[in-house]
Write a structure and sequence with these properties.
The protein has 311 residues and is of the alpha/beta class. The chain has one domain (11-237): Alpha-Beta Barrel (TIM Barrel). Helices cover 48% and strands 11% of the residues. The chain contains twelve helices and eight strands. The chain has helices at residues 28-40, 60-74, 89-102, 118-132, 144-147, 153-162, 177-185, 206-211, 224-235, 239-256, 262-272, 290-310, and strands at residues 11-15, 45-48, 80-83, 106-109, 138-142, 166-171, 196-199, 216-217. It has an eight-stranded parallel β-barrel with strand order 1-2-3-4-5-6-7-8. Helix 3 (89-102) packs across helix 4 (118-132), helix 9 (224-235) packs antiparallel against helix 10 and helix 10 runs antiparallel to helix 12. The longest helix has 21 residues, at 290-310.
């Protein structure tokens, strides 16, 4: 059984880490625990083989193996989106066909760094849609800090208008609140139907983004239960309660957001929480210093104390 995702999708689509053992090989037992952990936290969906998933460090065979293991473990409980961004459209189409056959709900595509003009951006996503075929739902990732591609609102609106199979925007521009407000205000009409907007950037601005019209989050914060509760509180109308809960976790959110070392921090937290067997990040990648470990220990202890005091 597989789920679809569409223009009305919301909640928390957690960006999954890719577990490795101490030698750097895929750790499939930890993968099973990770899937169960995310689902037990109440996520609405999962996204795998993204930037946080170290997709660029996996071989094609490893990517297919990991995706298949995740989809088997999920077993239809939540929709799974698979990152298929790559240098060649043929490889992208092959991976897309493989994961969709195995039960994925859709795929996520980020632009190549060379796409610096409106015409290039629009042409690229037209080619992507043609290569993947009309039956593959697509999430477009707008993450200029990593891709170096800056989409204007007008370009994004044109892409969504021209390609109905692109149903979701992963919004990670920064600063991006005005852009988010415009994307929400200028879709959901006769010309451009409603689109799903999920936000990333380690959820650093999640309460504000929800207030601007985001449908939820798509990020890899190592405490997914917080993301789930914040989105649920906001949806229930408790805007201040959602922001208060988020504020309790903010020091940890901020610490995880550090460029370069953030993935190592997330994996270390997941390791300490007993979810994955090793915090290994494949080379080239960051490693934590002893001072980093000390910082993290203090932050985790303070968070535990804060949450206990709030009960």
């Amino acid at each position: 059984m597989s789920y679809t995702f569409d223009r009305n999708s919301g909640g928390v689509y957690i960006i999954a880490a890719t577990p490795f053992d101490g030698a750097g090989a895929l750790d499939l037992e930890s993968t099973d625990r990770l899937v169960d952990y995310y689902i037990e936290c109440g996520v609405s969906g999962m996204t795998i083989l993204g930037i946080m998933g170290e997709a660029a460090k996996l071989s094609g065979q490893e990517s297919a193996l990991f995706a298949r293991r995740v989809l088997e473990r999920v077993n239809g409980r939540v929709p799974v989106i698979v990152g298929v961004t790559g240098g060649g459209l043929d490889n992208m189409a092959e991976l897309s066909r493989s994961v969709m056959k195995d039960g994925a709900a859709g795929v996520m595509v980020a632009p190549m760094p060379s796409l610096q003009t409106d015409a290039q951006q629009r042409s690229y996503f037209a080619q992507v849609c043609k290569a993947l075929g009309p039956d593959v739902p697509i999430c477009l990732q707008d993450y200029p800090m990593t891709t170096t591609v800056n989409f204007s609102v007008e370009t994004l609106l044109a892409i969504f208008r021209d390609h109905p199979q692109i149903v979701m925007l992963k919004h990670e521009d920064w600063p991006g609140l005005t852009k988010l407000s415009r994307m929400r205000a200028e879709t959901g009409n006769a010309e451009i139907p409603q689109i799903s907007i999920l936000v990333g950037n380690a959820a650093l601005f999640l309460p504000l983004e929800l207030q601007r019209g985001a449908d939820g989050a798509m990020t890899g914060f190592a405490y997914p239960e917080m993301l789930v509760k914040v989105v649920a509180l906001h949806k229930a109308g408790d805007v201040d309660g959602a922001e208060d809960l988020f504020d309790a976790y903010l020091p940890m959110v901020r610490y995880e957001q550090q460029l370069g070392v953030g993935l190592a921090i997330r994996k270390e937290i997941l390791h300490r929480r007993g979810v994955i067997g090793s915090a290994k990040v494949r080379a080239p990648g960051p490693t934590l210093t002893s001072r980093d470990h000390d910082d993290l220990t203090r932050l985790m202890n303070r968070l535990d104390q804060k949450l206990l005091a709030g009960e």
